[in-house]
Each structure stands twice: as C-alpha cells, then as structure tokens.
Design brief:
mainly alpha; rod-shaped
C-alpha cells in the first residue's frame, strides 16, 4: 500500500503542466486527448511489462496463474496512472502533431481567392 502511495506521489510530482492547445473546428479535442492518453498509457504499460518480466517471483508467497493475472492488471493501472499524471510527454507531442496536421488540412482545403 505504501509503495502505491509513493509511486502515485512520485508520478504526480513529476507531471508537467498541461497547456490547452488551439481548438480547430471539426475535432472533438477532449475525445481526441482521451484517445491519445489511452495510447500513451498502453505504451507505458508495455514498457513496464518488460521491466516486470525481469523481476523474479518469490514462490513462497506468490507465483501461479493468479499472480500473472494480478500483475498484468497492476501494470495496466500503473500505465494509466502514469499517463494521467503527465506520462512521458507522448500525449502532448501527438496532440501537437494532430492539431498541426488538421490545421494544414484546413488551410489546404480553403480555395484561393
């Protein structure tokens, strides 16, 4: 329990401040941000999974199929917590690229006068 609180404190203290990007018509910014944040959470979870695969299991107090299931769910939640707290900056970079691409598409669609 203490480790989870420490992890959450560490993650929240390292979180960068989110700035509101420009909103263009045609894109639901909240849904897009949520989808991109889910992608970042998945990416982080996969990274954590690789890390936890190297940690040996104490057979006296753990192991078995139930621990594999629990560890998988725990790693998913760690990924979600990390992404929600600011993650590794992937969400902000992808959002900036999506907005830039949308702006370029909108400008190209406007006919020249």
């Amino acid at each position: 329990m203490t480790a989870n609180l420490l992890t959450a404190d560490f993650i929240s203290s390292a979180a960068p401040q989110k700035t509101a990007p420009k909103i263009n018509k045609g894109m639901d910014i909240e849904k897009t941000r949520a989808a991109v944040e889910d992608f970042e959470a998945f990416f982080i979870s996969q990274t954590f999974q690789q890390m936890y695969d190297t940690v040996p299991v104490n057979e006296t107090f753990g192991g078995g199929n139930a621990e594999k299931i629990f560890r998988s769910m725990m790693i998913d939640e760690y990924g979600k917590m990390t992404a929600k707290a600011g993650g590794i900056g992937l969400t902000d970079q992808i959002m900036a690229q999506l907005l830039q691409q949308q702006e370029a598409d909108t400008t190209a669609a406007v006919p020249a006068e």
